[in-house]
Design goal:
mainly alpha; 9 helices; 83% helix
Length: 204
């Protein structure tokens, strides 16, 4: 369980920094009370983690060899994609994630501006939940939950999401101007490769 917890915590924390949902939290916290944004975003990410773990348990019904080699393949593909994407970014890259989040937020709030606490929490929840669906962190959580202790993965991933959400809300503007999306992609890609090689070394 400790290994699953550590894997979920490290992988999610690194992968989520500089991600679209990270910048959505940054922008929402600049427009609305931070504590309400935190509640909505953190709840959405926790709910998505729960969904991903359940999906991982369904995948776990497959033969162990399929899960093992499929997980290795997914980690290698995700890692390679992140590293390739980073290699194509200019050295001053760092604003695309913020711009994408800004576009998402503007589109969603074009016809609706939350004016009460419940509306702010619900808006934060829905925007984050939808943006996280199909994200690389969801795929990583499903893969980890299929091959490891589900409770360890869930707790580790949720704590990782909470850490990133707190960073986004408490010092988001500072981070947005200084986080190198290129470097985060390299680190995240390398981490996916590490998990793949560890799985190869451990065997089925």
């Amino acid at each position: 369980m400790l290994t699953a917890f550590t894997a979920g915590l490290i992988l999610i924390t690194i992968s989520e920094l500089g991600d679209k949902t990270f910048f959505i939290a940054v922008l929402l916290a600049m427009r609305h009370p931070p504590q309400l944004v935190f509640l909505g975003v953190a709840t959405a990410l926790a709910a998505m983690t729960g969904v991903s773990v359940v999906m991982g348990q369904i995948v776990a019904l497959l033969p162990k060899a399929v899960i093992h080699y499929g997980g290795i393949g997914l980690f290698l593909i995700l890692g390679t994609n992140l590293i390739y994407t980073a290699s194509q970014m200019p050295h001053n890259q760092g604003e695309d994630g913020m711009e994408e989040a800004q576009l998402t937020l503007n589109t969603a709030q074009r016809d609706y501006q939350p004016i009460n606490p419940i509306g702010i929490v619900c808006t934060s929840f829905l925007l984050t939940f939808v943006a996280e669906w199909g994200d690389r962190t969801q795929v990583a959580t499903i893969t980890l939950a299929a091959a490891n202790d589900r409770y360890g993965v869930m707790v580790g991933a949720i704590i990782g999401h909470i850490i990133c959400t707190l960073i986004a809300i408490l010092c988001g503007r500072w981070c947005a101007n200084r986080i190198s999306e290129k470097m985060i992609h390299y680190i995240g890609g390398g981490l996916f490769w590490v998990f793949a090689f560890v799985a190869i070394a451990e065997g089925v």
